[in-house]
Design goal:
The complex is a heterodimer of chains A (about 290) and B (about 250).
Chain A lengths: L8 H12 L14 H25 L4 H6 L1 H11 L6 H24 L2 H10 L8 H16 L2 H12 L3 H26 L3 H8 L4 H37 L5 H10 L3 H30 L1
Helix pairs in contact in A: 4-13, 5-9, 5-11, 5-12, 5-13, 6-7, 6-9, 7-9, 8-9, 9-11, 10-11, 11-12, 11-13, 12-13
Chain B lengths: L5 E10 L2 E11 L4 E5 L6 H9 L6 E6 L2 E2 L5 H8 L2 E5 L10 H6 L19 H13 L15 H14 L4 E5 L7 H17 L3 E5 L3 H7 L2 E6 L2 E7 L5 H7 L1 H6 L1
Helix pairs in contact in B: 4-5, 5-6
Classes of the chains: A mainly alpha (about 290), B alpha/beta (about 250).
The structure holds adenosine-5'-diphosphate and magnesium ion (MG).
Adenosine-5'-diphosphate (ADP) binds next to helix 1 of chain B.
């Protein structure tokens, strides 16, 4: 700002205002009586975190020098993978077919868990649960399905229905019921209870209060979480393929075991494209819903 | 003598050992609009909630159209209670649904089981009745708009239509116009007065401004610390009465 420019009316106004308004008086700040306690707390927290990390480093044989010494192994692996094997009949076509299976596992695993997740979510949400006992029991069921990893469910179902995609679908239904039910219950608890109360005063039954008062309020959140879980489940079904539940995961596993790293790379590229497409599609729908 | 549509006697209610309502007695007849006045925390909302079943009274009798509520339980109680409809300051409609679907939901107590699941199954008959209710509050032309797109005043009128679709004879309104601009507030108050005077409903409305009561109500009931200290025609509401009624608030402020 140059000194020569004549002051504009606003500047003048501000200037005269600042002349007229006295600065607020200064007062001494009272001593914080909890200062010592706060310092102690921070010190303890830092010490605990450092100790935990030291234990973790020891417990995981964490040793970056191993990575440096073993670089040739990785180099062989990588050089074996390039260039990717782009043979249509032998590699790409089976890869695409298996990828489709992976996608179907993720889709069924997500949609077929909707009824069980919805039922448990309604029972496990404080605002809609009919009884404290139902609330506690459904919470426990959800926790169980969430705590057991889908890969463990897959191993169990493989023993019942044999190797293949069906075991993967069953595994995802179980685990996803636990996760999605919990997420849905939480979003129900956060929504406004007003419309539900209003219908209660109109003589609506418990079920009617839920279907006409609570659920319509949470549908956007529910669909958003559903799409998010679909995204996650497609990726999970890849891993399930590794333990025999079919799909592209199985092909990747076979390629590695037979040292066909170039085939493996092609399959990984196909998976990468699938993940990006699913991610973009679910993101697009969620953005549309948010409006 | 005509029987009161709503008769409350010796109503008492405590929260955490603190008396919130103490020996509350009043009546509201069909054809009159009764304003409930009183400082914040005097127990106005709790009174209406006890009638509507959103709060459980500790003692007292509530009669709706001659039916003593304590004689019913479960589903029967719900049905007996649905004679009274409640309108809220925060409106409590479902914003994503149409005005028509929201109004139909007022009739849930008498619909078939499919309609309990989704508005898709509301019968033609019910929809037509709901249209009539929307027409009554001047909102028929917005029937298929989502409620979230309507203004506050329009939403409150839809909420009143829902109460009409409930076929209630008693309308409980807890600060129905506190969140509205003065113009919309005036319209909604006129509507409530019309419903009382022309449709013979019993209307009990908690109002935050005494002048709204003076202009629209027939009778006023004043609450102070959970007790009724005034009950009479609005014409007898003088400055003296109002000063006493709102003194707890002034003292607190
Ligand atoms: N759910 C509740 N739990 C505990 N105290 C409550 C509850 N609802 C109301 N109260 C208390 O009861 C008193 C009366 O409240 P309310 O009926 O809402 O007053 P008003 O509507 O006249 O402002 C207030 O002191 C309030 O804090
Ligand atoms: Mg209140």
């Amino acid at each position: 700002m140059s000194i020569q420019t004549p002051p504009r009316p606003l500047d003048t106004a501000l200037e005269s205002a600042s002349v007229r308004t006295p600065a607020p008086a200064k007062l001494p700040v009272p001593a914080d009586p909890h200062r010592g306690r706060k310092a102690m707390l921070w010190g303890t927290a830092t010490a605990v975190i450092v100790v935990l990390h030291l234990l973790a480093v020891a417990g995981t044989d964490f040793d970056p020098t191993l990575l440096v010494d073993g670089w040739q192994g990785m180099a062989r692996f990588v050089s074996g993978a390039f260039p990717p094997n782009l043979d249509w009949e032998e590699v790409i076509k089976p890869g695409l077919d298996a990828t489709l299976v992976t996608l179907w596992i993720g889709l069924l695993g997500t949609t077929l868990s909707i009824p069980s997740a919805l039922l448990l979510a309604v029972l496990a949400s404080r605002t809609t649960s009919p009884h404290p006992v139902a609330y506690q029991i459904s919470r426990a069921i959800l926790s169980f399905f969430r705590a057991v990893p889908d890969i463990v469910f897959a191993l169990i179902f493989v023993t019942a229905v044999g190797l293949g995609p069906f075991a993967g679908v069953l595994a995802l239904i179980c685990h996803n019921t636990g996760v999605m039910g919990k997420l849905w219950a939480e979003s129900m608890e956060e929504t406004d209870q007003g419309p539900q109360d209003a219908l209660a005063t109109a003589g609506a039954s418990r079920l009617q209060q839920i279907t006409h008062g609570s659920l319509p309020l949470v549908i956007p959140q529910f669909v958003g979480l559903l799409l998010y879980r679909f995204d996650v489940n497609v990726r999970s079904s890849l891993v399930l393929g590794l333990v025999g539940a079919g799909g592209i995961g199985l092909l990747i596993n076979q390629a590695i075991k037979s040292f066909q790293f170039d085939t493996m790379l092609t399959h990984i590229i196909i998976v990468l494209i699938l993940i990006i497409v699913v991610d973009q599609a679910s993101g697009f729908i969620r953005r549309k819903l948010a409006v | 003598m005509e029987q009161a549509a709503l008769k409350v006697s010796s109503l008492a209610k405590s929260y955490n050992g603190r008396r919130v309502l103490d020996d509350v007695d009043f009546e509201v007849k069909r054809g009159e609009l009764v304003a409930f006045l009183g400082a914040n925390g005097s127990g106005k909302s709790t009174t209406l909630k006890c009638v509507a079943g959103l709060a459980e009274p500790d003692a007292g009798r509530i009669e709706l159209e001659g039916a003593q509520l304590s004689e019913f339980s479960g589903r029967q109680l719900q049905l007996a209670r649905s004679k009274a409809a409640m309108v809220f300051q925060k409106i409590h409609l479902v914003p994503r649904r149409t005005a028509l679907d929201n109004v139909c939901a007022g009739a849930l107590a008498r619909v078939n089981s499919l309609a309990s699941v989704s508005p898709l199954f509301f019968s033609r008959e019910l929809r037509e009745e709901a249209m009539g209710c929307l027409e009554r509050v001047g909102m028929a032309d917005r029937a298929l708009d989502r409620v979230g797109r309507l203004s506050g005043g329009q939403q409150q009128r839809v909420a009143v239509a829902r109460a009409l679709c409930q076929r209630a004879s008693v309308l409980l309104a807890d600060e129905p116009v506190s969140a509205l601009d003065p113009n919309a507030a005036e319209h909604v108050m006129e509507l409530l007065a019309e419903l009382a005077h022309n449709e013979n409903l019993a209307v009990a409305a908690v109002l935050h401004q005494p002048d709204l009561a003076l202009r629209h109500a027939d009778r006023a009931i004043g609450l102070m610390h959970g007790r009724i200290t005034f009950d009479g025609p609005v014409a007898s509401l003088n400055q003296n009465v109002l000063d006493t009624l709102y003194s707890p608030e002034r003292n607190a402020a």
